[in-house]
Design goal:
It is a single chain. By secondary structure, the protein is α/β, with parallel strands linked by helices. The chain has 2 domains: 153 residues, Rossmann fold, CATH 3.40.50; 127 residues. Helix content is 50%, strand content 7%. The longest helix has 19 residues. The two termini are 40 Å apart. The C terminus is likely disordered.
C-alpha cells in the first residue's frame, strides 16, 4: 500500500536522479512512524533497479534483496550497531559492484551506532568508493555526532496532516479506532498501526497515572506495572502526557476529561518544573534501550511526579537520572 504523504519526497528524489544530483550520503530524518524505512527501501530499489519500482514507498516495510545492497541494523541480541559491523560494511563497499550499477548501504537506525562505529564510518561518508549511495535512517538526532551530520544531505519527512493520516489508515483497515491510536502515536500513521495494538496498555497506563496524580496509587507499584512494557513505549506515552499537562496548565489543549491528569492536579504543580521534568524524559528517550535501568528510572520519575515535582530542577532531576543509569 503506497504511502501517499511521501509523494513530495519521491518526486524530489526522482528529480535529483534525472539531473544526476543524487548525493552520495543521505540522512532521513523525521518522527518514528512517518515511513523513513519504507523510504529507504524505495531509494534502494530505485537506485539498484530492483523489480518494478513503484511510484511511492510502500507499506508494509520489507528489506529489498540484492547483491549490491547492504542493510545494517543492531544484531538481535544487542541494542547498538557496533564498530565491527561498520568495518565489515566499509570493506564490502570497497569491492566491485556485482551488477555493475553501484552499491547501496542503509544503516538504521543510525543513531544507535556506538561512538567508535560512527567514527569508523566518517571517511566512507565523505568519500564513498565507486558509485556508492549511503542512506542513514535516524529516529533520534541527539546521539549522532555533528561530523556525521556534516557529511550527509538531510531529508526530513514530516508528519502528514491528521485528515490525510486518517484517510490512509481507514483504507488500511476500515472501522478501526484510528483517531485514538493516531493521537497516541503523535499523529504518525505507521506508529498509529503499532499504537492501535497497544491501546489497552495505553488506557491502563492512563488509569494508573490518574490514580498516581490523585494520591490513590503508590509510585513504586505503578512503576512495577509499567516496567513490563517496552521502555520506548512507556517513555513516549509519558512524554505526550506531560506535554498535554503543560498545554493544559496554560488553559489550552484537550479537555481535562480527556487527559489522565485533571486541572486540580495541574494547579498544584509549578509549570516551570513540568518543563524540566519533560526535558529529562526526553533525555531518557534519546538514550539507547539497555543503557539505563528501566525499573529504577521509572521509580525515580514516578516518585517525583507523586511528590508534585516539589523543588524539582535540573540539579534534582539529573542526579536521579544518573542514579538510575548504568554503564553498558
Amino acid at each position: 500500500m503506497e504511502l501517499n504523504w511521501l509523494s513530495q519526497f519521491a518526486n524530489s528524489w526522482r528529480g535529483m536522479a534525472v539531473q544526476e544530483r543524487v548525493p552520495h550520503a543521505v540522512m532521513l530524518l523525521g518522527a518514528a512512524g512517518v515511513g523513513k524505512r519504507c523510504a529507504a527501501a524505495w531509494i534502494a530499489r530505485q537506485r539498484l533497479g530492483i523489480g518494478d519500482s513503484s511510484d511511492l514507498p510502500e507499506y508494509p516495510f520489507a528489506i529489498p534483496e540484492h547483491a549490491d545492497l547492504r542493510w545494517i541494523g543492531p544484531p538481535e541480541d544487542k541494542h547498538t550497531i557496533g564498530i565491527e559491523q561498520i568495518r565489515q560494511l566499509v570493506a564490502d563497499l570497497s569491492l566491485t559492484s556485482f551488477a555493475g550499477g553501484g552499491k547501496v548501504a542503509v544503516v538504521e537506525p543510525a543513531n544507535v551506532m556506538t561512538a567508535n562505529a560512527a567514527n569508523s564510518l566518517l571517511k566512507t561518508l565523505e568519500e564513498p568508493p565507486g558509485d556508492t549511495l549511503i542512506v542513514l535512517v535516524v529516529d533520534k538526532t541527539g546521539r549522532l555526532p555533528a561530523t556525521i551530520f556534516s557529511r550527509c544531505q538531510r531529508i526530513t519527512i514530516p508528519v502528514p496532516p491528521e485528515s490525510e493520516s486518517l484517510a490512509w489508515l481507514d483504507r488500511l483497515q476500515p472501522a478501526a479506532s484510528w483517531p485514538q491510536a493516531l493521537r497516541a502515536a503523535g499523529n504518525a500513521p505507521l506508529a498509529a498501526v503499532v499504537a492501535s495494538e497497544r491501546l489497552e496498555a495505553a488506557e491502563a497506563m492512563s488509569r494508573d497515572f490518574r490514580a498516581l496524580s490523585g494520591k490513590e496509587a503508590a509510585p513504586l507499584d505503578v512503576a512495577a506495572k509499567w516496567a513490563k512494557y517496552e521502555p520506548d513505549f512507556v517513555l513516549d506515552w509519558l512524554c505526550r502526557e506531560i506535554q498535554q499537562c503543560i498545554v493544559g496548565a496554560f488553559g489550552a489543549g484537550m479537555p481535562a476529561a480527556d487527559r489522565a491528569v485533571g486541572d486540580s492536579v495541574l494547579k498544584r504543580i509549578d509549570r516551570r518544573n513540568m518543563f524540566c521534568y519533560l526535558d529529562i524524559i526526553n533525555r531518557l528517550r534519546g538514550q539507547p534501550v539497555g543503557s539505563f535501568n528501566v525499573q529504577l528510572t521509572l521509580d525515580s520519575l514516578l516518585i517525583d511526579w507523586a511528590e508534585d515535582l516539589l523543588d524539582y530542577s535540573y540539579s534534582s532531576g539529573l542526579p536521579s537520572l544518573l542514579m538510575a543509569s548504568k554503564t553498558r
